[in-house]
Amino acid sequence: MNRSLESFLQLLGRAPRKPAKAELSPEVQKIYFYKKGEKVTKAQLEALHDEHHKNSKNKWRKRRWFTLIFVNLLFVLSYSLDIQLLEGALTASRFMGFHMADLNSALQVMLAHKQVLINLVIGISTIFILWFILGGRTFCSWVCPYHLLAEWTEKLHLWLAARGLAKNYTFHRGVRTVFYIIFALLALLTGYTVYEFISPTGILSRAIIYGPTLALIWVAFLLLFEVFLSRRAWCRYVCPIGITYGLVGIFSPVRVTYDMTDCKHEGDCRSVCLVPHVLDVTIKNRSTDVEIGLGADCTRCGLCVDACPTNSLNFEFKGLSHKATKPEVERSLMPESRQQQTETKEQQS
To answer: 33 lies in which domain range?
Structure first.
């Protein structure tokens, strides 16, 4: 199946499927064949982890947290100092004269008014281009304040769950698509942007800039639900923003790319990912190409890049990025070289 179509269907909730052997490229089949005889011990994996974390130091997470906090504080400084640099909030703003409107909020408004509003079209054009280039769901992990709070409280959830003090109820991811349709219909039928009243993204953005309101009680309820009952439930199963921006980013040139050549398939990346289904390709016999970009539901948060002990996951700007040449020592461990070594031994014998 076409990768873009598969990415779209997964964004709407379809579970990743295991490709048939015929769908695997000859290069991939060759690498998997030689990986069958590769035995990786626990000690070797631990050594890989130690070396990787020594060099990685969660650099992408630190960059993301800094960017997210900086963007939201820029709103605060612009409002507090009245410098008119970045006015408004995340739902609708103006940066140095350029009007910007959140794509999902703009869609809700136009459905509620039952007409295409020219001012909103101008506002979403800038945002559309920005997130088309960066990858739609980059908004979620690099800008959305609720994402950051949910990420911090997730650590508390995992700590409590490990001690039997919290549950992790999971739901079908297609539920998010159902909510997307419900919120759209509510706007269309009622004439009100119903979702904006309960959106933790908008509530937090306005609270950070203009001061706290009673609406923060709703945000606190969501966080408590995620801490004790369902890990990252709002982002995974409810929030329509993820679908809207995911659709924009299907063909984005910026993406996280998986190279299966050196992957040990240990699953560290999937354990830290908010949307682990996009990393299904890292499971053995699931990648159809040697290099493959992650799907549209990927938030480009970089957690998998930080976690991967073999550097098999990296950010890439399609058409501009160039892979670094592997050192000779690493190249000797690649499947093609192992194949040549095997053939040489067979000829000698």
So the answer is: 3-12+23-40+253-348
